[in-house]
Amino acid sequence: MTTSSIPWLDQGYPHIWLPYTQMKTAGLPAPVRATRGCRIHLADGRVLLDGLASWWTACHGYNHPHIAESVRRQLESMPHVMFGGLVHEPALTLAQRLCGLLGPGLDRVFFTESGSVSVEVAMKMAIQYWLNQGEPQRQRILSFRGGYHGDTFGTMVVCDPDIGMHAAFQGVLPAQDVLPLPHDDQGEALLDALLQRQQDQVAALLVEPLVQGAAGMQMHDPDVLRRLRRVADRYGILLIFDEIFTGFGRTGTLFAFQQAGVRPDILTLSKALTGGTLPLAATVASQRVFEAFWSDDPAHALMHGPTYMGNALACAAAHASLDLFGSEPRLAQVQAIETLLAEGLGACRDLPCVQAVRVKGAIGAVELHRAPDRAALCQAFLQAGVWVRPLGRTVYLTPAFVMPPDDVRQLTAAVLAVLSAVS
After folding, report:
1. Catalytic pick from 13, 62, 129, 148?
2. N or C: which end of the chain has fewer CB within 10 A?
3. Has residue 21 been placed in a domain?
């Protein structure tokens, strides 16, 4: 193993297991000492402009003083208390606040700690919704090509099977239908035909609205969501929107579904919910869904409850993050970033290695014809002073919403320069 001059890295690395990493062949990861604003400070003295906002979570940048102070105050009074038989003000007022932002029709909030688990809860809600109403055969969740909904066993079932990391578990996981998104009448007819045959087995449709993140920032028109709502209503099944990535301004509106003018029956949220500070997720259900669990029968209760559900520190961070959306011009900043990404990444279209350029809100993606040497590309970005990691064939940017224009231009210039060298 390569060694560095940083004792904690050399001594601790042999004991860590990193995500999505072949540990035998991987080099040492970049050692982070601190974060400030839109920059990552490394232990070796380098400073990187962060193009990814830590997997799209740090929408306000790092170390925002308002979030830090909110967490500090909460820590002094109550960091956590079990949510079984007890409740507390930060969680209940956050639930009320989220429902107010989402608008009528999304009325009940179930808190968890991670996006994957929030989708697991949404799937469980959908299946038990039918079970409680005497239709236990409705166990199928229909999802869509390009979709990614988590890496727990339950969520792997509904991910696109071609997103390689799940291929090893084929045959172990129960089969579900993963269909093309209905971009047009033909796609809607295909979904319609399947439901005509299997509607008594289907509990819900599940989709990432507007942008499928892990598939390489694949983007679709809001009309796709309207088609899904129409089909779900036609067959009386539930519609789940996974807004773990798209929620909280990333696509240009506070929630992506708002651009389609339709509502889901169940919605999942995480990532930017706390502004990238503490783990928290939420599964938000309609009153229609909730009423299927409202019963004198204990067996009709939703049997789920993570240990750190409704964690008070995380809820305090979420409150502070939502404050910032109200007090600072986040959506206007996203619109400005969208313009800069379109201008800066547009030049990449002329490169021989580039297949497509896509921009939506504070998301920019450059899709290559072939998968690059990821390690070499990451090293080139490090040398350019930016933190960018490709997803398969896609080099993408998801900067913090507070990133100044010159920094956004620095990011797009780095992408153009590195890919020009590759070409």
Report:
1. 148
2. N
3. no
